[in-house]
């Protein structure tokens, strides 16, 4: 029996300088326990170092304010990732127009946190001046070629240069994965993290403009229909693949037989329509195969490594009529947005200063909504080139009987994996122990806030208790309106896109997280409701491109809304009404 009261293998001690941590905003990155491979390959100090450099470039901190080679911005306690709220509070103190309290509200909502205790060097005028310079730069920028072209092309070149992994030796596979992380991943991740802060300036300016114009819904309505959103692009390609099925009776018959074994059946067929489908599908996997529902993990179910996931999505899309074509939806939203902008320009034509402000905010919004999504796509695509060698290595180990299953590789640190190459079979018992350890920790609900001292894990409640009260007819659940519009339908609670075949046309998707790996199945739904997220969540941005009424941040939605419940989703006002 594993003693889970001991620190997990990747745990660290809380910071004394920045003692308050929270689980807020970590659900999209890691809802459960972090594996040793993830934290030691592409997490931990890799992320910490990139984050520190991003904060320094933005102007909010100097890297010397953090301890060398020790985590400060993040924390891992009994395997769960935390974000350092104290660091974010200091950021708020130094950010013009913000405060520690504002950061609490941003990250925690209505959850109460320990009172902010100011430190002598929290308020640093030189940092405030640097942040102001960043604000001025962001609001004046009209192009980000470093992200939209340079990094994008570099990620594409890295994919094109992928070696024949089957021809590499075991150690060469691991070394290739490590080299991608060390030489490529850190730099694009740093840029993406900085982009998160930069894009928050833009959304803040848009919210402020909408408030001044007396219509808070403008912020959401003006961020839809932008076009050229990187994380929305797969949805259109998947739709086009679904139309091949609709046009082919043999393809339709194969999909009717079910997704299990479908990939093998299609590849074994000599039918021209099936061969064409496989050719298109392989091009799709080449271009978008890095996507998954756990995009920061080293061995998730990516679309390239687990074909059943995108095939399941296509299976749902083939049942939709042409009115659900993402291209049509995007065109309609683009026309709505252009009409709204035209109205604003006409209404305020006599106020030159206000009109100039409107034009500036719109231009910056156009740029940064696209650039932020492209930045995430670039980063994930680079990381994927470190994943694929690991999949090949795991396949070999399973084939040789050294691992019981491919994802056993996740149970080892990079150092242990290096040792495993030299001493096969040595870690069999340790892998089993770690898996049991993770499974037991995954049953527990980590404290939402930690203030300097980690409560004993033996006192953490189980995730299944206490029971969450189900929403009753007439209840109105509140969240964040991410895409305007209203839709009524039957709720379908789905925890993994693998279960996409359960989603029927016209149903409302209720999901736990917002991640690009989910967004293609949005097209199969009438609307989307998500437990967590913000207006800058990737699914929020994509839903606005697809015209899907979407409400994010509905706490415990997947527990409170039962399958089969009829609900109305109001994406403009951010509410979900139970019927």
TrEMBL record:
The GO molecular function terms of this record are:
transferase activity, transferring phosphorus-containing groups
Q: By its UniProt entry, which Pfam families does this protein fall under? A: PEP-utilizers
Keywords from the UniProt entry? Plasmid
Domain named PEP-utilising enzyme mobile is located at: 504-574
Q: Which Gene3D superfamilies match?
A: Phosphohistidine domain
Which domain of life, per UniProt? Answer: Bacteria
UniProt-recorded name of the protein: PEP-utilizing enzyme
The species this protein belongs to is Rhodococcus opacus (Nocardia opaca)
């Amino acid at each position: 029996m594993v003693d889970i009261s001991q620190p997990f293998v990747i745990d660290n001690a809380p910071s004394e300088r920045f003692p308050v941590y929270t689980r807020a905003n970590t659900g999209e990155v890691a809802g459960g326990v972090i594996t040793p491979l993830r934290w030691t390959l592409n997490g931990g100090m890799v992320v910490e170092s990139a984050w520190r450099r991003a904060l320094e470039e933005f102007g909010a901190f100097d890297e010397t304010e953090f301890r060398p080679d020790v985590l400060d911005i993040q924390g891992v306690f009994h395997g769960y990732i935390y974000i350092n709220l104290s660091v974010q509070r200091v950021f708020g103190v130094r950010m013009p127009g913000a405060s520690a309290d504002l950061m609490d509200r941003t990250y925690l909502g209505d959850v109460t946190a320990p009172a902010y205790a100011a430190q002598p060097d929290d308020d640093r005028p030189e940092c405030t001046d640097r942040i102001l310079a960043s604000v001025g730069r962001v609001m004046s920028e009209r192009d980000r070629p470093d992200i939209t072209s340079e990094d994008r092309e570099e990620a594409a070149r890295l994919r094109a240069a992928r070696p024949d992994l089957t021809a590499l030796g075991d150690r060469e596979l691991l070394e290739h994965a490590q080299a991608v992380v060390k030489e490529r991943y850190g730099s694009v991740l740093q840029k993406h993290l900085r982009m998160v802060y930069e894009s928050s300036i833009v959304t803040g300016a848009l919210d402020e403009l909408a408030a001044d114009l007396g219509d808070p819904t403008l912020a959401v309505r003006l961020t839809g229909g932008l076009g050229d959103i990187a994380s929305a692009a797969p949805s259109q390609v998947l739709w086009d693949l679904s139309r091949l099925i609709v046009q082919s009776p043999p393809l339709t018959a194969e999909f009717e037989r079910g997704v299990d074994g479908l990939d093998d059946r299609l590849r074994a067929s000599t039918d021209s329509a099936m061969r064409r489908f496989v050719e298109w599908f392989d091009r799709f996997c080449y271009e978008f195969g890095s996507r998954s529902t756990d995009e920061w993990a080293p061995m998730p179910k990516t679309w390239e490594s687990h074909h059943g996931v995108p095939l399941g999505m296509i299976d749902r899309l083939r049942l939709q009529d042409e009115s659900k074509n993402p291209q049509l939806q995007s065109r309609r939203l683009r026309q709505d947005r252009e009409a709204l902008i035209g109205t604003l320009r006409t209404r305020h034509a006599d106020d030159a200063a206000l009109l100039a402000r409107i034009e500036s905010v719109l231009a910056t919004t156009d740029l940064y909504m696209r650039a932020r999504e492209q930045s995430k796509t670039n980063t994930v695509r680079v990381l994927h080139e470190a994943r694929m060698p690991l999949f090949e290595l795991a396949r070999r180990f399973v084939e040789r009987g050294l691992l019981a299953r491919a994802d056993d590789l996740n149970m080892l640190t990079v150092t242990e994996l290096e040792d495993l190459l030299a001493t096969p079979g040595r870690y069999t018992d340790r892998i089993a122990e770690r898996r049991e350890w993770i499974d037991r920790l995954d049953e527990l609900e980590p404290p939402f806030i930690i203030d300097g001292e980690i409560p004993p894990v033996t006192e953490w409640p189980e995730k299944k208790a206490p029971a969450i009260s189900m929403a009753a007819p007439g209840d109105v659940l509140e969240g964040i309106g991410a895409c305007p519009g209203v839709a009524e339908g039957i709720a379908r609670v789905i925890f993994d896109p693998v279960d996409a075949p359960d989603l029927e046309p016209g149903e409302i998707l209720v999901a736990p997280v917002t991640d690009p790996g989910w967004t293609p199945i949005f097209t199969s739904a009438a609307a989307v409701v998500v437990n967590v997220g913000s207006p800058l969540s990737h699914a929020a941005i994509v839903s606005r491109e697809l015209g899907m009424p979407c409400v994010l941040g509905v706490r415990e939605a997947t527990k409170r809304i039962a399958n089969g419940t009829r609900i109305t989703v109001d994406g403009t006002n951010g509410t979900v009404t139970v019927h």
